[in-house]
Amino acid sequence: MNELLFWIYLTNSVLLITHEIDSAYWKEWKLFKIPGGISGFLLLHLPLLFLVLYGLVQVFQETNAGLIFSLILSASGLFAFTIHTIFIRKGKDEFKVPISILLLVAILLVSLLQITITIYLLTV
After folding, report:
1. Domain residue limits, the chain
2. Distance of CA 18 to CAs 21, 116, 118, Å?
3. How many CB atoms lie within 10 A of CB 39?
């Protein structure tokens, strides 16, 4: 089950990072009112991406920290899907193209699977 979690974590990481590339295209810093424009957005992502990749190492090493990172990553995916769904329903034009929606749905599905497996591993 730990090996499966590794691959699910990796898949979700790739989906979320691709979503963040999409977010730069849509100027997400304006949606969330993040100061500094693209520079602030990129600087914010440096430590976030480091943590995502460090979490992947921890999952691979089957540490308890890896399970915590997995919970955080899957919760981040659920948050991304939810907040962008809210923005779309409020009439925001960002993230309405098919590939953006496909990414968000894939993030939702993979995050649900990831959080389920992680909770299971935390309880055994």
Report:
1. 2-123
2. 5, 23, 23
3. 10
Q: What whole-number distance in Å separates Cα of residue 41 and Cα of residue 98?
A: 24
* Residues sharing a CB contact under 8 Å with residue 69, sequence separation 6 or more, in sequence order: 9, 51, 54, 55, 56, 58, 59
| Amino acid letter, residue 73 | L
pLDDT, one tens digit per residue, over 18-74 is: 999 999 999 999 989 999 999 999 999 999 999 999 999 999 999 999 999 999 999
For residue 102, the tally of other CB atoms under 10 A from its CB is 11
SS3 category, 24: helix
Dihedral pair phi/psi, residue 34, rounded to 5°: -85, 125
**The two structure tokens encoding residue 18:** 């691709």
Q: What is the pTM of this model?
A: 0.94
